[in-house]
Amino acid sequence: MGNQLDRITHLNYSELPTGDPSGLEKDELRVGVAYFFSDEEEEVDDRTPSDCGFTKDHSPAEEGPFSVSEVEYSAFCSQECIFSKLRENEDLNVYSAKTLLTMCKPGDLLELVATAQAPHWAIYERDERVIHLHKGEIRKDSLLEISIGRHGRIVNNRYRYRPLPSDLVMQNAVGHLGLSSGEICWTNSESFAAWCRFGKREFKAGGEVHSAEQQYFLKVHLSGSGVHTLVFRSLEDMIRERRRVDASGILKELSLVNGGKE
């Protein structure tokens, strides 16, 4: 993967009311709240395994585990590590959807990956079904059906926040089934699934009050070109940029610390 840099203007979201600061929101708190609709196209497509970065011998029906070429990241809020995807610290292998289903339990956070695509995240419900944000709608689908061309893994510990009990995770996910377009306030599948598991309003577009004191630092670990550190004002902005890098392979310079290399 190259390290092409080009400057863009940093995205800003207007602040919106979101409900209970604890993140545990009740249905009645959603009344009268202005929601964003998902503006990131979530691709759960019909690519073949070879199109998704796996060799032709690694079909979705095989057991695994397999590896796929991925950018690695770590992220911090002030000095606290809040996100880590580093092969040196964790198992980044992926499995066929059939194998993954034998490992899942209700409330698990799942990630489907493929080369040159943003990962697709979902909450495992039961009976081989997941709840996820796809093309502006909160849906329930078969994992086997939506995973064609992708392998997956459980990522419960990717974010370092304290998870909610599994029954509350499922309550969050099921409670939003059927919402679409202007009724939702997540811009991608990862933000929605992570919100279901951790209940933090920061995962919502406009759900975080900006302050000069609080900044997010994303460390992008690019093979052969060092570590590049980018600065963001909100968790949502950071997630959007990280997913864009996963999909495009291009690191855009928003705000680089110490010249961008460490």
Description:
By secondary structure, this protein is of the alpha+beta class. It has five helices and nine strands. The protein has helices spanning 97-101, 143-146, 166-174, 189-198, 235-248, and strands at 72-77, 80-85, 109-113, 120-124, 129-134, 137-142, 151-154, 216-222, 226-232. Strand 1 and strand 2 form a beta hairpin.
Structure summary:
The protein is of the alpha+beta class. The chain is built from 5 helices and 9 strands; from the N terminus they run ββαββββαβααββα.
Q: Care to count the β-strands?
A: 9
Q: Uncertain spans, ≥5 residues at pLDDT below 50?
A: 1-39, 43-58, 258-262
The percentage of residues in β strands lies in 15-25%
Rg over alpha carbons? 18 Å
Helix % is: 10-25%
User: How would you spell out the order of helices and strands?
Assistant: EEHEEEEHEHHEEH
In this structure, how is the largest beta sheet organized?
A: 5 strands, antiparallel
The largest sheet has its strands arranged as 6-5-4-3-7
Structural class from helices and strands?
alpha+beta
Kindly state the mean pLDDT as a whole number? 78
Global geometry: globular
How far apart are the first and last residues' alpha carbons, in Å?
A: 18 Å
**Number of helices in the DSSP assignment:** 5
